[in-house]
Amino acid sequence: DPMTFGIVGLALRRIKAGLGTPSKSTILSSSLVPPADGHDFTGQANPAVHGNGPVEVSVPGFSLPIDDLVVSTSNQLGGRFSFNVDFNSGKFVGVGFMQSSIGGGERSSAATAYLEPVESRRNLDILINAQVTKLIQSGTSKSGPIFQVAEIGQPGSSKRWQVMALKEVILSAGVIGTPQLLLLSGIGPSAALTSLQITPLVDLPDVGTNLADHPLVPNYFQVSSNGTWDDVLRNGDNFGATLGLWQASRQGLFVNSPGNTLAYTRLPANSPALAGISDPAAGSRSAHTELIFVDGFAPFGSVPQPATGNFVTVLTAVVSPTSRGSVTLASTDPFAKPLINPSILSTNFDIQAMVQAIKDAQTFLNATPWQKDFKPVPFGDLANARTDTDKASFARQNSVTVNHPAGTARMSPANSNWGVVDSQLKLKGAQGVRIVDASVFPVIPECHIQGPVYIVAERAADLIKSAYGL
Ligand SMILES: Cc1cc2nc3c(=O)[nH]c(=O)nc-3n(C[C@H](O)[C@H](O)[C@H](O)COP(=O)(O)OP(=O)(O)OC[C@H]3O[C@@H](n4cnc5c(N)ncnc54)[C@H](O)[C@@H]3O)c2cc1C
Questions:
Q1: Does the ipTM surpass 0.90?
Q2: What is the distance in A from the centroid of ligand 1 to the CA of 344?
Q3: Which fold has domain 129-208+406-467?
Q4: 64-97+213-401 sits in which CATH class?
Q5: Over the stretch 188-207, which tens digit does the pLDDT of each residue have?
Q6: Considering the entire predicted model, what is its pTM?
Q7: Glucose-methanol-choline oxidoreductase N-terminal domain: which residues (predicted)?
Q8: Which of 221, 208, 154 is nearest to 383 (CA)?
Q9: Is 448 a catalytic residue?
């Protein structure tokens, strides 16, 4: 459950650019804290490239038998698999230790780090068991309709309440909820809205388009070691004892997910994935693919955990995908689920990059450090996926996503005729609404995107304070 931050890189670039040390509230949202087991994490992360913000981040707090094998293999293979002590350094490729938003063996999040400390503020009300059903036009301005009223309801009831914002509405309903709400409010592609009998108020064809996510394939390897977590998952007593240990002391296997190590890799320069296209990654220090090394059978997708045997899973992902899907309305009922078309692996780049990642997983686990105690052997459909064509087919059959959707209300230049928000995060063609969530990313970041969401949120806070002279 990793989160990766580019925040310190951002801060360093600020300092180099002569902008001075960033104030805490401007840039830094996380702090590196000791792992749950208190082990010396020298060489697993670099405190010098971390900030001092409220979200707690740590390296894994429970060592796994495969950790040393991953590091040894990195040292042996080098090149695209060289060791990277900390992905926050500004160089985002290589093999390293996972960093998770965990402090003291517990999840740290926007809720615990930002919201809980201010819950008792008199100017903050939190409505639970309530859902915004639409934004209501409250006036007209030269920039377009003004939306300063949110309508609220509860499932199973037709009763509605209205809340009026004195300054503006900040919409943070996420990559699925935000476009759904905009569409329900008459903000989106006019023709599609009209066909659903919704009166179009702002014609923004991009609402709900540009949905990006990181496709993920679980690659299973049967191993001869009997020390993997498979028996914890299978055996109720063992599972209960492990959970009990976490509940009593925030120690043991359950202090984080059992994927302690990972690799971010760039494709080889001659990869067929890159033929005839411009490189979709942000730059030479950004990755195309990711490998997460899990000490057991990670039950992703439709393949159930086998009743016997020990396993290592390598989760392979494409982190600079070019496929784009969509979120559209299935119904005008605000409580009905929208239609989500993830459209993953729908481009040649994405499928070829995934094939390379699957080959990389096999190369990595074929290295000598694994041959003494683990002796990994491809398991299930992976065992039969011998050629690149087989691997592409295996990927199509077994892909899920990393749950990193982004981009359904993308940012664009103020005077462009595409996009949904401008660089101030304000809804285009309207007044009174700002969007602050992962839907505004124009492209999906090549990392687990929770960190970048915090960056956008911190930036938005500054934009809002600045707009009102606060
Ligand atoms: C299963 C899963 C695992 C993940 N694991 C990781 C990980 O390990 N590392 C990582 O970096 N990222 C991870 N992510 C991604 C990360 O959680 C998201 O990128 C991030 O939470 C997005 O933040 P957001 O503010 O855009 O939206 P969200 O966090 O989704 O917040 C949107 C909120 O709006 C609420 N909402 C929606 N519609 C309405 C409405 N109409 N009225 C009122 N409220 C509404 C939702 O209930 C939700 O609470 C994971 C995501 C999932 C789903």
A1: yes
A2: 19
A3: FAD/NAD(P)-binding domain (3.50.50)
A4: alpha beta
A5: 999 999 999 999 999 999 99
A6: 0.93
A7: 68-215
A8: 221
A9: yes
